[in-house]
Automatic annotation (TrEMBL):
Coiled coil: none annotated. This is Glycine dehydrogenase (decarboxylating). It comes from Microbacterium suwonense. The keyword ATP-binding does not apply. InterPro entries: GcvP, GDC-P_C, GDC-P_N, GDC_P, PyrdxlP-dep_Trfase, PyrdxlP-dep_Trfase_major, PyrdxlP-dep_Trfase_small. Residues 785-906 form the Glycine dehydrogenase C-terminal domain. The glycine cleavage system is composed of four proteins: P, T, L and H. The glycine cleavage system catalyzes the degradation of glycine. The P protein binds the alpha-amino group of glycine through its pyridoxal phosphate cofactor; CO(2) is released and the remaining methylamine moiety is then transferred to the lipoamide cofactor of the H protein. The gene is gcvP. Residues 6-441, 477-736 form the Glycine cleavage system P-protein N-terminal domain.
Length: 964
């Protein structure tokens, strides 16, 4: 029977033999297999784990299960969860995901296997969806510009706080927080503020408590966590008088009825789009949002989609203002967020496209009316309702609050919020029924039977008249023309067809690991027992998910050589921050607050430096040598220079240059000897898994990218998950959460650090993917996947070495899981640039490798273990032909300004429209290899002018006439 590992790993044993022969690896070895021999050449002996010691014995990782067995085990875990009616609120609500969106987006590999749209010509579909998202957010918030999503609401508020500090001209370090803010947001703000020296002051803003004289910003929850709706414009005006920036967290569904934050004077609006068709998923993933007034566009963190023009002057979408990316700004970056929640943002935007403004308004009115009806029934029962004005949440004062919440759960399967000993919060959403409302009223002594007629659909419920929205929103045609399911299905298909995703072919991106996301791994994420859980549901309702989390924590700890794992960080950048905050907490607990210096090699991922700054550390850059390794002499000099203040070293292993550094143990020992901690960036764990462990080579803490090594799909640029793993001495400082259900984590550890995401276990809704991946691969399969990835990278490097220099290799001439092809000699001899090569690869039917990182003018290629030899050969053939085309330009066959490379990519329209006046033929442009005739992917636009777009920033849906 074929194992799952055999299905996941693309290279057959016969293909491996051919590849190893090409690499000159002997096939008659007595002690180990040829693949093992290759790994011994690549991985330093000082950290190498021989076969049989990879953790499959007493490690706790069970032997590999079949796909059927894995699904059965997941069904068992799911059966231990109970999906009760969640009326807790606090930013998480029941919602109906339209089936056309679930089937054609969430469950569609054309959407979930796409990569970040760094190659915009082949990303026009998801970029249009993100433009829709930005327009939706901008319209509803009443602010000029929105980004293409944040990680969740609480982290978005923290980013809003940091933006306010940057943009405000006030000298104060005080940030005022609404007392009626979401409790998880307050906790996260405390974590983030303490690290960067911000003083938080909590004020009852709705109750009229005055602002302090000095502040740089104020944060308002609108509506409040208690449900209260009030007019914050006076508070916003007062903040402006003090020189501060006003940040408002607003519920987008409420904003279809309420005045927008922009109309109230807010500078920044943040929040979540979860209730726009995205399941609660026990906390995520969901798309947060941020929008800003005019003048703050260039302060926006995260990603921003804008409109530019292509080579023929036609409008085209692309990521804007890319100079804000961390790999360029590094320690000067204003945010460490390098990702988004694209897949979830697409779902939320399509929810708005499907329903349109009228449909959203109707949903919101139904919610408001049900909440108002509940208030009436509670008052009729003699209950004390706290607020007169509210949208969806009714707060009730009662002496027996705990008893009511308990009875609601036990008698009716309804989850209410115990706000405090004398207060119950009850939230209504689009899934709430009249039966739910009646049962809640019964708990407060309401009537056993009721009769009532139709509510007035035009009524605003309990919203104050002076705050009712008067202006129009979602006026662009895209929100009005896809009402039928047929139209919606076709729109989603049209957008998907404009994109290049893993379901079309290889995406050989170095440092990003675009591997197979198997269908069996994905199956459970839409099961109601996982998808419909509220993140603050009581422990007895979520035992299955907690058991899965325990198992995954233990497995990840085992394969990395650490003692404890927190799954809370909902992106790799947040995992970095969490790990550095753990180091900070450890030093502070030992009375060494002065340890603030973080050493970071010049080759490191850009988020490393940004995360260190946000953890309150000072970045000191360590040089790398000509082989791409950490310069040991410079490292020792920097350690000596900063010995007293050294907090940590951050390194990536294998290195960002794609090689296994031979001296890694010496590096980590030198840091430990000076009293520092070692942070090993886990971005390249897929080149190490089963052959060495971070904890064994001297790491104290690491983040892992589940969207890279452990098969969670990239989703067009998100979701990602970045768990943080640590040794026992750092475990107490890993991120905890005030509302988490677990008392202890795997291994018996209690995490006492502050939260770094809004939900206790981050994006728990997609954890079944990685759980299933490890369960089906087993320890041996994980090791085989590592070897296959390293073999494929070395095969590509060897086959292309005569055409493009391979920039870095290890001491035995081997690379790790990726190789860097140096295109600078090509440019110097032919004039052809790395951009030309990347765009020409589109004509060959490929997504380009990573461009100009970590070295300008290079391509970083990572084939992953999932690609078969045929696809590797197709890529190799394309690169060799591109080199020949460049040589033809140098030889004068084609002019330097008119050849297939500088004009790439070629659209179908460019080949058939008008006279063909180029120096090369249509066939050479469109079909450089014969196989493309049957499988051609046609890009929808020509090469996009990035500079034009940054000069003419347009971040919302352009008018239809622009595409005429």
């Amino acid at each position: 029977m074929v194992s799952f590992a055999d299905r996941h790993i693309g290279i057959t044993s016969q293909a491996q033999r051919r590849m190893l022969d090409a690499l000159g690896v002997a096939s008659d070895l007595e002690d180990w297999s040829p693949v093992e021999a290759l790994m011994r050449q690549a991985v330093p002996a000082s950290i190498f784990t021989p076969s049989g010691d990879s953790g499959s014995g007493d490690s706790g990782i069970p032997s590999a299960a079949s796909e059927a067995e894995t699904l059965a085990e997941l069904r068992d875990l799911a059966s231990r969860n109970t999906v009760n009616r969640a009326m807790i609120g606090l930013g998480y609500y029941g919602t109906f995901t339209p089936s056309v969106i679930q089937r054609n987006v969430l469950e569609n590999p054309s959407w979930y296997t796409a990569y970040t749209p760094y190659q915009p010509e082949i990303s026009q579909g998801r970029l249009e969806a993100l433009i829709n998202f930005q327009t939706m957010v901008s319209d509803l918030t009443g602010l000029t510009t929105a980004n293409s999503s944040m990680l969740d609401e609480s982290t978005a508020v923290a980013e809003g706080m940091l933006l306010a500090r940057r943009a405000s001209k006030a000298k104060s370090d005080v940030f005022v927080v609404d007392a009626d803010a979401l409790p998880q947001t307050k906790a996260l703000l405390a974590t983030r503020a303490a690290a960067v020296g911000i003083e938080l002051l909590e004020r009852d803003l709705a109750g009229g408590e005055e602002l302090p004289e000095a502040l740089f910003g104020v944060f308002v929850q609108y509506p409040g966590a208690s449900g209260r709706v009030w007019d914050p414009s006076a508070v916003i005006d007062a903040a402006h008088v003090a020189g501060g920036i006003a940040v408002v967290a607003a519920d987008l569904l409420a904003l279809t009825l309420l005045r927008s934050p922009g109309s109230l004077g807010a500078d920044v609006a943040v929040g979540t789009t979860q209730r726009f068709g995205v399941p609660m998923g026990f906390g995520g993933p969901h798309a947060g949002y941020m929008a800003v007034r005019a003048g703050l566009e260039r302060q926006l963190p995260g990603r921003l989609v804008g409109v530019s023009v292509d080579a023929e002057g036609r409008p085209a979408y692309r990521l804007a203002l890319q100079t804000r990316e961390q790999h360029i700004r590094r320690e000067k970056a204003t945010s460490n967020i390098c990702t988004a929640q694209v897949l979830l943002a697409v779902m939320a935007s399509m929810y708005a496209v499907y329903h349109g403004p009228d449909g959203l308004r109707t949903i919101a009115r139904n919610v408001a009316l049900r909440a108002s009806l509940l208030r009436d029934w509670l008052v009729d029962a003699g209950a004390e309702v706290v607020h007169e004005s509210f949208f969806d949440t009714v707060t009730v004062r009662t002496a027996n609050a705990a008893s009511i919440v308990s009875r609601a759960h036990d008698e009716f399967g309804i989850l209410l919020r115990l706000a405090d000993a004398g207060t119950v919060g009850i939230s209504v959403d689009e899934t709430t029924t009249f039966t739910d409302l009646h049962r809640v009223a019964l708990l407060f002594g309401g009537k056993q039977e009721r009769t009532f007629g139709w509510a007035d659909a035009g009524s605003p419920g309990a919203l104050p008249g002076e705050l009712l929205r008067q202006d129009e929103y979602l006026t662009h045609p895209v929100f009005h023309v896809h009402r039928s399911e047929t139209a919606m299905m076709r729109y989603l298909k049209q957008l998907a067809d404009r994109d290049y995703a893993l379901d079309r072919g290889m995406i050989p991106l170095g440092s990003c690991t675009m591997k197979l996301n198997a269908a069996t791994e994905m199956a459970a994420i839409t099961w109601p027992e996982f998808a419909q859980l509220h993140p603050f549901a009581p422990r007895e309702d979520v035992e299955g998910s907690l058991a899965m989390i325990d198992q995954l924590e233990a497995w990840l700890a085992e394969v990395t050589g650490y003692d404890a794992v927190s799954l809370q960080p909902n992106a790799g950048s947040q995992g970095e921050l969490a790990g550095l905050l753990a180091i900070r907490g450890f030093h502070h607990a030992n009375g060494q607050e002065h340890r603030t210096v973080c050493l970071i090699p010049s080759s490191a991922h850009g988020t490393n430096a940004a995360s260190a700054v946000l953890a309150g550390m000072k970045v000191v850059v360590v040089a790398t040598d000509e082989l791409g390794n950490v310069d040991l002499d410079d490292l020792r000099a920097k350690i000596a220079q900063h010995a007293e203040s050294l907090a940590a070293l951050m390194i990536t292993y294998p290195s960002t240059h794609g090689v296994y550094e031979e001296q890694v143990v010496q590096i980590t020992s030198a840091v430990h000897d000076a009293g520092g901690q070692v942070y090993v960036d886990g971005a390249n764990l897929n080149a190490l898994l089963g052959y060495a462990r971070f904890g064994d080579l001297g790491g104290d803490v690491s983040h892992l990218n589940l969207h890279k090594t452990f098969a969670i799909p990239h989703g067009g640029g998100g979701p990602g998950i970045g768990p943080v793993a640590a040794k026992a001495h750092l475990a107490p400082y890993l991120p905890g959460h005030p509302q988490e259900q677990k008392d202890v984590h795997a291994g018996g550890y209690v995490f006492e650090g502050g939260p770094v995401s809004g939900a206790p276990y981050g994006s728990a809704g997609v954890l079944p993917i990685s759980w299933a991946y490890v369960r089906m691969m087993g320890a041996d399969g994980l090791r085989e996947a590592t070897a296959a990835a390293v073999l494929s990278a070395n095969y590509i490097a060897a086959r292309l070495a005569d055409h493009f220099p391979v920039l870095y290799t290890g001491e035995q001439g081997r690379v790790a899981h990726e190789c860097i092809l140096d295109l600078r000699p090509l440019k110097s001899t032919t004039g052809i640039t790395v951009d030309d090569v990347a765009k020409r690869l589109i004509d060959f039917g490929f997504h380009a490798p990573t461009m100009s990182f970590p070295v300008p003018g290079t391509l970083m290629v990572e084939p992953t273990e999932s690609e078969d030899l045929g696809e590797l050969e197709r890529f190799i053939e394309a690169m060799i032909m591109i080199k020949a085309e460049a040589d033809a330009v140098a030889a004068g066959r084609w002019p330097a300004d008119d050849n297939p490379l500088v004009n790439a990519p070629h659209t179908a329209a460019s080949l058939i429209s008008g006279e063909w006046a180029h120096a090369y033929t249509r066939e050479e442009a469109a079909y450089p290899v014969p196989a493309l005739v049957a499988t051609k992917y046609w890009p929808p636009v020509r090469r996009i002018d990035q500079a034009y777009g940054d000069r003419n920033l347009v971040c919302a849906c352009p008018p239809i006439e622009a595409f005429a």
